[in-house]
Amino acid sequence: MHFCPFCATLLSLERSTTFRYACATCRYVYPIHGVHRHDVVVPQSKFASGAMTADDLTDSVAMQGQPTTEARCANVDCPGMQAFYVQMQIRSADEPPTTFYECTRCKTRWRTD
What we know:
Layout: E1 12-15, E2 19-22, E3 29-31, H1 60-63, E4 68-70, E5 82-88, E6 98-103, E7 109-112
Antiparallel strand pairs: 1-2, 2-3, 4-5, 5-6, 6-7
């Protein structure tokens, strides 16, 4: 981003016979000489594909390999004290994330909002 040195307005890119930056307020013009082309390689985000969604949590295999924490199992008959967990933002951004748990012993699932 480039700004006008006189009025501090954001310069817009214009193309006449050549490329130039121009100020819409005070008509300052800055010519661009020697345009260079740069190829930019953007790595594919791990969230673009293959990211876990709330629907994936119906598969018990999806929880395998997730981090574990000390949490009492929601099943009152299970003595399990350790669970896999995943946090996801399934509601609006101003709400806290939802944590999904799966008991490592009996595979019971529950969540906290």
